[in-house]
From TrEMBL, chains A, B, C, D, E, F, G, H, I, J:
Any Pfam family: CYNS_N
InterPro entries: Cyanase, Cyanate_lyase_C, Cyanate_lyase_C_sf, CYNS_N, Lambda_DNA-bd_dom_sf
Source organism: Pseudothioclava arenosa
Protein keywords: Lyase
Boundaries of every Cyanate lyase C-terminal domain copy: 75-147
Gene: cynS
Active site: R88, E91, S114
Function per UniProt: Catalyzes the reaction of cyanate with bicarbonate to produce ammonia and carbon dioxide.
Catalytic reaction equation(s): cyanate + hydrogencarbonate + 3 H(+) = NH4(+) + 2 CO2
Record family assignment: Belongs to the cyanase family.
Lineage: Bacteria, Pseudomonadati, Pseudomonadota, Alphaproteobacteria, Rhodobacterales
GO molecular function annotations of the record: cyanate hydratase activity; DNA binding
Enzyme Commission numbers on file: 4.2.1.104
EC category name: lyase
Protein name in UniProt: Cyanate hydratase
Length: 147, 147, 147, 147, 147, 147, 147, 147, 147, 147
């Protein structure tokens, strides 16, 4: 019985063998690269139809589709990530967290940005002083209930 | 002798008395709202000219300008922030951190997004199913050195 | 300039002097006891009209109303609460957390219960073998986005 | 010799093979879905008769019944759960813990809600603005002893 | 307005001035030494009549009685106590915790010893090889509910 | 070469096969149930003669006796135990630790209760309002040295 | 009412004013330098007669003697000390802890070195390759009880 | 390819089979028991000649000598050791750390005791009131550099 | 499919068999010893051409080259390293961290030293009072952006 | 009675008033900038003559000299520093710690770089692609003792 970790291993092997990039895989199944990667890593659930397309694209065993469509258990290391590429985002949340909160309150009211009804993209922006990484996040505004 | 914490208190009092929003303060001094708020909170250093403009706009004591232009000591609580509005960003980094890393490597090579040569904005995006919070970050790509 | 902690102190003193229970205060302003207590403790924001009613009921200074209506910074001790009455709820989340997740997924799909669009009540249920505490929570179901 | 972890694996496989939901399994053995799931996960002990019914319903090996009826060792990760669906409950305890305590004291006296003589349910409540997750907990009130 | 910490300070000063031991104070108000000390430290609530007796015995201000009868907030340092006299009890729980659990299960069934409906005493037991500290705890057995 | 963990596994299997309780095993080798259980779990060392009796009673391999008589390495999870039955004892130490210390100092002087020259028992005390768990600990008083 | 922290401050001021070393103070009251320093820091209790001698030697207020003779609350930072001079001892315990345990077991049996019936000294040992710090500790051997 | 953990296992088996004590092994190779034990546990590196003698004494495979002479990676559990025999030394460092620092500064100047150019011994000291464990440590004094 | 951990094991075995030092390996492939070691440990990515040279020098399987050129996941133990040789560097950062920050700000402005566009070397400096370890680090200065 | 924290405050005020840089202060007293800053921050002890020069240069009260020459208590936050400028050095130790250890062992033998007999400098190195921060550390090699 395959679980999400097994399927991740199968996906990585197939991706290497086929010489595909995440962006190419995402395009073939009509999903975004961010969602595709995180669902392949077992941190999101594919809609079943998309899971079946992925299985076809990568030549995975048929039963992998159902596994890819299951609700995942999102476990990550609490506290501090050490990889510099990930740590920098943690640092940004630490430094700018209160600013994000203040501006959301100013623009919307007493509430938060949803991390569930949420999407994100990563793009490369050319620049003469060195290209830049652009990360865009968008989440539904959720108002605190008063009852 | 004023320090950054004292100046933050003075700014918050002046902002309340003048009935200004962060966006309005930012516009008056020609800086972005994200940078303006974080520098007012003592997490960034204003260029001296901008600090002097801020002092004029908010009617702060003259010596505050120099304090606002000093390099800050960026101290934040390590581990897990508890306010839900901030926690959701921490959660996004936990869930999507490895995805950000994978896509940056795929698009740029072996490196990271700088959190120093960095900018960010927050905007409100109208949507029929409920308005959305949009957060855009951009940082210079830094390639690991091999020597 | 009053802050939320100052107003909490004023509320507790007025409550003691007037001999009011949280339930009575809540009823007078037409809000639930859970929300009323948590907003008086500075963990939620009252709608401004309700804040003004509370100021009238408890004889607080007028400027307290605006403070009670500000977005709070929800700071609580991460890790483990020690008071036995609070710890038992933490223990319930530890023991039954995976069960809540499994049943939410079974009944709704891949998503969560919102802690923002949320309400809660506490009631006393008489029982011959010893009265029982009943806690009811209700939060909007939020479906994970796939994009 | 089977242990609780082995039996959990057997249950999950049988559940998948038989295409049963937790609610259906619970109904077949006349227990609640919350208790049934948590006992199947090894976090509660089934009464022996119920364990034997479960073994029959799912076609488990006979010796599994005794294992399901043993007192479990309730081990969960201390500190902060990361899965968003579980974290939101942890957040609720953090934000509303002091409120639950204050209202229990007001309604009952100096004591706590038991997490041992305890039951819980999860239901789906239809709502035009989006269905809601309703969680009901009930625990016996325990008065502190003074001696 | 006195709080529990203030009253503890007043009690310690009165106890020193009057030259009383905890055992003597406990005897004068007809409570046990363990409960008396912990309630004087603000970790338990005296029944109001006992609080008033204590106020009379120690010559405390009248309003202290009500404070001593309030439900306390039992905050203690999580993790590891450092004072050797307290640490040894923590160590005993670490070493013998699974043993206490196994024997309670063997003698009673699937349940726990209550820490709420609970009492404790400390006595000195003479012994030729060196006197011994005897600590006796007793708590109501609470059976896990199956529902 | 057997180690303490191996022997614990053998003991648990033999105990189950023979249908013995810890109390019965303890009685057969003339030791207390608390010590017997904790030494079988590898947290204490049996005197060699007792270890040999245990080997005979449970039909263990002969080399197990020497292992059971070795000094153990007492490793337990620092910080907070999660199982409710064990946690309640941790909570008692948190709430009553300073009280135990104060009363030991009052009755004995500046010192502690030994956790090494130590014994403990668990008994069931019938009570009309529900039977009670009684835990008795006794440790030699150790006086701090002044030199 | 003086407490131990107040007395420590008075001692440090008197020591500086009188130009005395810890060794000289210790010699004047007939105690060891290690015990004298730690009791002056509030980590040990002087015998009352010694406390009175110390009060006389340093010209402290008379009531300080009783404070110095009270049982202290030994609070120290759990986890890792940062001062290099103290950290090195922590490191020694980390590296050689299992060795100390193995050799104590080999020489004495199943037991420990007491940290209560304990003494320690620090001496300077001249050496041509650089003088050495010599630390000697001695504690009573305590045998684990088997009961 | 043997590593230090493998060699430790081989040493423990050979020691048991040959019925040797650490003191006897140490004597046979002309090293101290403390160093011998810690190097056998992989926490120190034997000089190669000594490693070869040990290999001969215990009948280890020849390649073990080189492994025993490699620089070890000294990994130990940070924070708090739980075994009582080791914990007591941790407690001593907690209680007496500032005293050790004060006396080293008084006797030597601004510096520390080296934990690298370091030796230690454990001896049994007979005493009518119960034998005592004596631990002696000596480390080179290192003066802080001022530049 | 080889991963970075597998390749590290192969490298260590080949290095031992060939009797090469890290400095010699580094020289053969024309990279620095610091970079070579850290990339062999899987903490940096070799340029592909260098990876292929390393494969040739050490006789590794051909597919190892690609693995050595992959972006690594830089995972290290957060908090405190215990090995004394590594801990001393951690201690230096703790003691001198604010000094490094102050001097960088004084010499450059409001910014940091990059740990990405970074190089480092270790050399042995002969000295009559004992040879010294010299560590040189150099990183590009990165100025905080103000926007 | 001044302590090190008081003197640090006086130094910072004098430095600001006199418009001096750390490098200029260091030069005036003939010490390095790194040592001067860290000793002014209370993390190192000045030789008394240098302390007196500093008092003269900055116009501090005479008694400050003695305080500056006292052995400091080097307390820093264990775990992870959050300021990006300091964090990067922590990250370097995390990523390159094992490499530093391996190369020190290869060049010197089984030992460490002293953090006590230690010096450090920070310089600005012009570069066409952006100036670089150069940090040089040098510490005496200390060989582990084998005894």
């Amino acid at each position: 019985m395959l679980d999400k970790e097994d399927v991740t291993v199968l996906i990585l092997a197939a991706k290497k063998k086929l010489g595909l990039k995440w962006e190419e895989i995402a395009e073939k199944i009509g999903m975004s690269p961010v969602f595709t990667h995180s669902a392949c890593m077992g941190m999101n659930a594919f809609p079943l139809a998309k899971a079946e397309e992925l299985v076809a694209v990568l030549g995975l065993p048929a039963e992998a589709a159902e596994v890819l469509a299951e609700s995942p258990n999102k476990v990550f290391d609490y506290t501090v990530p050490t990889d510099p590429c990930i740590y920098r985002f943690y640092e940004i949340v630490g430094v700018y967290g209160p600013t994000l909160k203040a501006l959301i309150h100013e623009k919307f009211g007493d509430g938060i940005m949803s991390a569930i009804d949420f999407d994100m993209s990563v793009t490369r922006v050319p620049s003469p002083k060195g290209d830049r990484v652009k990360v865009e996040m968008s989440g539904k505004y959720l108002q605190y209930n008063a009852w």
